[in-house]
Amino acid sequence: MAEDIRQRAKLWPKGRLFEDFTVGQKFEHHWGRTVETSDTLLFSTLTLAFNPLYFNRDYARAHGHPDIVVNPQLLFNIVLGLSVEDCSEIGGPFLGVFELTYHRPVYPGTTIRATSETIEARVSGSNPANGIVTWNSAGIDEEGAAVVSFRRSNLVRRRQIEGAQ
């Protein structure tokens, strides 16, 4: 029985190669993620982020917030993670995040969706078997407002190398 399943299985290709990206290409990353109180409490504890805004409701309220604030680093990680399937799932070195901006606080119960736009795609000068792709990504809340945005780049394998046989 198990052998029959393996014989019927089909390889489902994952990720995009350099040639699959074009400047101006937009992605509405699927699913989204509702951030719960337990998410931000656990993340803050595990990363030793001991700002009481992230885990003390009374403190957060005393400082003008309606609830604890979702740890911004968790928010960034969620949005980056949601973008991986469309932008960088095939792998390749992560080259960095630039212009990371948090636009407003997020509170537990908020559902975050992610969007990205390809803003640059060029062949690597030092490694022509790869290209460098850069995206603007954003986390959007239920009202459609940006809560976090950043630019990020990855080295992405090329499908073919010019002049190669």
Mean pLDDT, rounded to whole units?
A: 93
Largest sheet: 5 strands, antiparallel
Share of helical residues: 10-25%
Intertermini distance = 42 Å
| Helix/strand structural class | alpha+beta
How large is the count of helical segments? Answer: 4
Radius of gyration: 20 Å
Number of strands: 5
Low-confidence parts, pLDDT < 50 over ≥5 residues? none
What characteristic shape results from the CA principal axes?
globular
Task: Output the strand order for the largest sheet.
Answer: 1-3-4-5-2
Order of helices and strands: HEHHHEEEE
* β-sheet strand percentage: 25-35%
List the helices and strands and how they pair.
Blueprint: H1 2-8, E1 26-34, H2 37-46, H3 57-62, H4 72-87, E2 94-102, E3 111-123, E4 130-140, E5 146-157
Antiparallel strand pairs: 1-3, 2-5, 3-4, 4-5
Give the structure's gist in a few sentences.
With 165 residues, the protein is α+β, with helices and mostly antiparallel strands. The protein has four helices and five strands.
